[in-house]
Structure formats: structure tokens, C-alpha cells
């Protein structure tokens, strides 16, 4: 049996925060605002897996009212989601994520993001796609007010 999940995550950009995407700290004058480290890419990846398993959303598992998750590395959250997936008898077949950000350029960091995601999910790097696109100066992404990520994942039963 296979399951598919999709997710969208959005975080506003703000001064005084590090920009962390896919577990990579990217030099930039602003970072994403949020309760955890606000890694919008890992949040979309994790939520797509939770969706595929019909296990709710990130807020259900890691509420922003819980001080344990204040500033937490989203890789820790993704590894926990991996354990939920594994316990349910599923594995990653593939996932495809898109980062939407006007700046900075993501190309230098994509391979490290893919490696980090593959490590958290115990899968091969060729099962993880991460792409980036700009907002072309349109909407909140184009105005550099926030970053949005989309992710689709396909899960298969473990053998």
C-alpha cells in the first residue's frame, strides 16, 4: 500500500532571527519567525508525512504553547515524525519540496538540505528533491515578507 501527503508551510521574515532552511543556516539579514527554529522547509516535509499517515498537523504533535518546542531544531521534530512513520510501517518512496523565496539564492545550499532531510528520514538522497523558485516580485514572497514551502511525499509500506 502507498500513501501520498502534501503540505504548505509559510513563515514571515523578521529581523533578529537566523534563516534556517532544511537544517542549513543561510546567511541573510532576516530569518523566519516562529516558535521553533522556524525551518519552513522541514515543517512542510514533516507535515506532508503526517498528512500521508492521517496523523494531523505539526501543531497537533508540537504545539506552539508547549515551551519544550521553543527554539527547537526542526530536524529533531522531523526525526520524531520519522519514528511515527516507521512505527506505522511506512517508509519514504520519494518527496518533492519547493522553497519559494525572493532572496537569498538557495542553489548553494540545496544539496546540504537534501542530505539533511535524507538523514532525518533514513532514506537515500535520490529520494529527496528540493527546488527553489522566486516570487518574481509578486505577493508576499516577491515583497520579501515571508517564505513559503510546498512538499509532496509518497510513502510505501516497509517490507
From TrEMBL:
Cofactor note: Binds 1 divalent metal cation per subunit.
Sequence ranges assigned to domain 2-C-methyl-D-erythritol 2,4-cyclodiphosphate synthase in this UniProt record: 2-155
Site (Transition state stabilizer): 35
Domain of life: Bacteria
Keyword Metal-binding: yes
Enzyme Commission number(s): 4.6.1.12
Pathway note: Isoprenoid biosynthesis; isopentenyl diphosphate biosynthesis via DXP pathway; isopentenyl diphosphate from 1-deoxy-D-xylulose 5-phosphate: step 4/6
Catalysed transformations (reactions): 4-CDP-2-C-methyl-D-erythritol 2-phosphate = 2-C-methyl-D-erythritol 2,4-cyclic diphosphate + CMP
Cited Gene3D superfamilies: 2-C-methyl-D-erythritol 2,4-cyclodiphosphate synthase
CDD domains recorded: MECDP_synthase (cd00554)
GO process annotations (BP): isopentenyl diphosphate biosynthetic process, methylerythritol 4-phosphate pathway; terpenoid biosynthetic process
Segments passing through the bilayer: none
GO molecular function: 2-C-methyl-D-erythritol 2,4-cyclodiphosphate synthase activity; metal ion binding
Positions bound to a divalent metal cation: 9, 11, 43
Residues at which 4-CDP-2-C-methyl-D-erythritol 2-phosphate binds: 9-11, 35-36, 57-59, 62-66, 101-107, 140, 143
Cofactor: a divalent metal cation
Keywords annotated in UniProt: Isoprene biosynthesis, Lyase, Metal-binding
Database matches in PANTHER family: 2-C-METHYL-D-ERYTHRITOL 2,4-CYCLODIPHOSPHATE SYNTHASE, CHLOROPLASTIC (PTHR43181)
Function: Involved in the biosynthesis of isopentenyl diphosphate (IPP) and dimethylallyl diphosphate (DMAPP), two major building blocks of isoprenoid compounds. Catalyzes the conversion of 4-diphosphocytidyl-2-C-methyl-D-erythritol 2-phosphate (CDP-ME2P) to 2-C-methyl-D-erythritol 2,4-cyclodiphosphate (ME-CPP) with a corresponding release of cytidine 5-monophosphate (CMP).
Family label: Belongs to the IspF family.
Protein name listed in UniProt: 2-C-methyl-D-erythritol 2,4-cyclodiphosphate synthase
Gene: ispF
Amino acid at each position: 500500500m502507498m500513501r501520498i501527503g502534501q503540505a504548505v508551510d509559510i513563515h514571515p521574515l523578521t529581523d533578529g532571527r537566523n534563516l534556517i532552511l532544511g537544517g542549513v543556516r543561510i546567511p541573510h539579514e532576516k530569518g523566519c519567525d516562529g516558535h521553533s527554529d522556524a525551518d519552513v522547509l522541514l515543517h512542510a516535509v514533516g507535515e506532508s508525512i503526517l498528512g500521508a499517515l492521517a496523523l494531523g498537523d505539526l501543531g497537533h504533535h508540537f504545539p506552539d504553547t508547549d515551551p519544550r518546542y521553543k527554539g527547537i531544531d526542526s530536524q529533531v521534530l522531523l526525526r520524531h515524525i520519522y519514528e511515527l512513520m516507521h512505527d506505522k510501517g511506512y517508509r519514504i518512496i520519494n518527496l518533492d519540496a519547493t522553497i519559494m523565496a525572493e532572496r537569498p539564492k538557495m542553489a548553494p545550499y540545496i544539496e546540504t538540505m537534501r542530505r539533511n532531510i535524507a538523514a532525518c528520514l533514513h532514506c537515500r538522497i535520490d529520494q529527496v528533491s528540493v527546488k527553489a523558485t522566486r516570487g518574481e516580485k509578486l505577493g508576499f514572497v516577491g515583497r520579501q515578507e515571508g517564505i513559503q514551502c510546498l512538499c509532496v511525499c509518497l510513502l510505501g509500506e516497509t517490507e
